[in-house]
């Protein structure tokens, strides 16, 4: 018989998101904790994805509107002038 | 100059690039982003009389822009092809649903608390986000960039809760893998 605690990596990585959102059941939380303690791959998955997410939010960027697009927008706005 | 003291040139000069970067980060497509920025200015301009400096001009413009982006996601999500999408992450796991040795997360050998080389990181993250299937991308942006709740995302994009979690799961699996291949120096 499979242990109550046995969890596949596919399920474990799925549960990581539920845990992060606070939507995991206590039983699954327990199983996940146990799995993460013994599974290096899944532990890395949790760390690395949370790292990506943490940094995904940061606003940045060096893109510039081209002068053409700017002129086009300004013209459109000015034609709306009533 | 309009009666509210707003000036089209000033607006576009002051906020155009900011809105463009904000939008590109969310839709990962420059031309589309330009369209959304243009629509944002047009909508804002039309309703500028109702704007009474309660919020800052910038906050107000970004709120309009954000709504345009969500509208775009919403329209995309109603296209019926979406759930016929192929699970490109299926091969990451073996028959017992454990990681295969080739796809299991590798040791990135970085300090997770350390600051990162920003420009490079975001360039690659943007490229990886762009590779996600559309619905995964929408869900990822709404959840992790805009902090929508799972319930609200399901409502906006007309998803069941289990669809939602599957999309989040696959998006993370793919992004992680893509970052490992392209950003991490192993």
Write the layout of secondary structure elements.
The complex is a heterodimer of chains A (82) and B (186).
Chain A: H1 9-20, H2 26-38, H3 40-56, H4 67-80
Chain B: H1 8-27, H2 30-46, H3 57-77, H4 118-131, H5 134-145, H6 150-157, H7 161-182
Q: Could you characterize the architecture of this molecule?
A:
The complex is a heterodimer of chains A (82) and B (186). By secondary structure, chain A is mainly α. Chain A has a domain at 1-57. Helices cover 68% and strands 0% of the residues of chain A. Chain A has helices at 9-20, 26-38, 40-56, 67-80. The radius of gyration of chain A is 24 Å and the shape is elongated. By secondary structure, chain B is mostly helical. Chain B has 2 domains: 8-77, Rna Polymerase Sigma Factor, Chain: A, CATH 1.10.1740; 80-182, no CATH class. Chain B has 7 helices and no strands. The longest helix of chain B is centred in the C-terminal third of the chain and has 22 residues, at 161-182. The relative contact order of chain B is 0.11. At the A-B interface, helix 1, helix 3 and helix 4 of A face helix 1, helix 2, helix 4, helix 5 and helix 7 of B.
Structural key phrases:
heterodimer; A: 82 residues; mainly alpha; 4 helices; B: 186 residues; Rna Polymerase Sigma Factor, Chain: A; 2 domains; 7 helices; 61% helix; globular
Largest sheet of chain A: none
Q: What is the overall pLDDT average of chain B? A: 88
Beta-strand proportion of chain B? under 5%
Order of helices and strands of chain B, N to C? HHHHHHH
For the record, give the distance between the C-alpha atoms at the N and C termini of chain B, rounded to a whole number. Answer: 56 Å
> How is the quaternary structure best described?
heterodimer
- Structure class of chain A: mainly alpha
Report the largest inter-chain contact. A-B, 42 and 52 residues
The level of helicity of chain A is 55-70%
Counting DSSP H or I runs of 4 or more residues, the number of helices of chain B is 7
Largest sheet of chain B: none
> What's the order of the H and E elements of chain A?
HHHH
Overall number of strands of chain B:
0
Low-confidence stretches of chain A: none
- Domain unit count of chain B: 2
Q: Which structural category do the helix and sheet elements of chain B fall into? A: mainly alpha
Q: If helices are DSSP runs of H or I spanning 4 or more residues, what is the number of helices of chain A?
A: 4
Gross geometry of chain B: globular
Fraction of residues of chain B in helices? 55-70%
